[in-house]
Amino acid sequence: MLSYVGRRLLQLVPLLLVISFVIFVALEMAPGDPVTLLLGQNASPEAVAELSAKLGLDRPLLLQYLSFVTDAVQGDLGVSYRSGREVAFELARTTGVSATLALTAMILAVLIGVTVGIVAAVKQYTFIDTVTRVGVLAMVSLPVFWLAILMIIGFAVKWPIFPAFGWGTYGHLVLPAIALSTYPLAVIARLTRSSMLEVMSSDYVRTARAAGLPERTVVMKYALKNALVPVMTVIGLQFGGLIGGAVLTETVFGIPGIGRLIVTAIEGRDYPVVRGAVLLGTVVFVLINLLVDMLYKWADPRQRGV
Amino acid sequence: MSAAVATAQSAQGAVQERSAWKETWTMFARNRAALIGLVILAVIILIAVLAPWIAPHDPTAQNLSLRREGPNAGAWLGRDEFGRDILSRIMLGARATLLAAIGVIVLSGVVGTAIGIVAGYRGGVADSLLMRSVDLVLSFPYFLLAILIVAVAGPSLRNAAIAVGITYIPQYARVVRGATMEVVGKEYVEAAHASGVRGFRIAFKHVLPNISAPIIVITTVGLALAIVSVSSLSFLGLGAQPPSPEWGAMLADGRQYVASAPHISIFPGMAILLTVLALNLVGDGFRDTFDPTLR
Lengths: 306, 295
Description:
By secondary structure, chain A is mainly α.
């Protein structure tokens, strides 16, 4: 297992190099010269040349990339064109906020999604099952930004229970976390249900029942453990969607997270910030998937030799 | 072989093909939810096509004295912050949204299917090279990648569709590659190969028609995803630009007025929900029809 983790971590190095290169080159090709944007159209050529040199933009692309990588490895992601602060500082300031939001949403999604999925499977073809299936379909079809606005209209404007905007208290977390959790919740509930149904008709569950074990023990002890293995993989994949959903949720609720940071940085052509934030989001996503693969191997002994 | 026999054989082939589609349709039609989805979808498409003729008002005509007016007899869904009729804008917006979603699917479908067929059929170096590139795209969180692409290409509905299309290529490539590898071992492909048919002719004439089921399923689900993603980008200001009506952008316009005029955001969102829901219903129906084990 340890050598597996080591191997996977080693594989990350070339992957991150390629990803960072793609991001770097892509932003170089973007229209709009940051120097002109910073100094305005009427800046003197001398001033433009001076700032270009200061920002290192006058060097060849590959050199710029190499110095970006050597700096990034040491935690230096450059300086924001707009705020003049370190990108690493901007990311540190916003990452905690986004992580709190995303983790709360994911915990909600897993707890409710798995529970609903189990109940729907155990009560297959009943009213509860039908409601679950319809609910899941509605939830995967809901655009998160619209749901967020509806929640503000309902629970911040019409019935002012929660704040509509901002960040700082537990109250600020409620609506965004619920909005962000709906999609992964529905996906997890649907998969748990179908996975449980498959496991419940398997031989070992039939054997456990035949041995006279109470239904509760059969479901919770024998069926659930195996049914959750595929659910785990999906949780990892849903994190990717969650990163995108966070951009939208943070925009609607005015939350100072990394998603909001990316959108404002793109609007202001603040490329060091865009680069740093997209890179960080991608690294987090890759690491989460590695973690999920490890959990998967741990939970399913058949996978260990692979 | 005489011409008459050949004609008779091809006619028989056509009959068999038709009855296979008929059987598929009968199975699909048994699913009431999928059928409802199909009807809703047909209505939305009809509205999108006929929008310029059936829209009650000019979707870009401003009437500042009536701005943010709620739903009433003159404007069933009310008016936006410039006094424009929301119903007319939703009808015209259906065109923008559906066309963008179709663009996403054409781009990702053509490129992804080509990659998948070549990778699955050729195998070896071509396979690992192509699939490594696909994995690279997958290692980005897809919405971040779409945002990055729009940031580079500049905000517009077309670029938003291209960006989302690129992120959806891996879906096609993976599914098509898997299906191709399954089909390649079958006798009819080997027979075509043995009788001297060249590689790409086999791929498109013999492999592609036999992997159409999974392609239809991911296309329907992909359309739903494309509508949400493109309108999300528009909502962030990275897609459709004003004053052209687009659902995501309309929703964003109403965001400032959630307290005084919530209808500006509510109705475009409903249009997105209804379209995506219909597509998901149809997609689930196709999945059940083509792969009963997934039910």
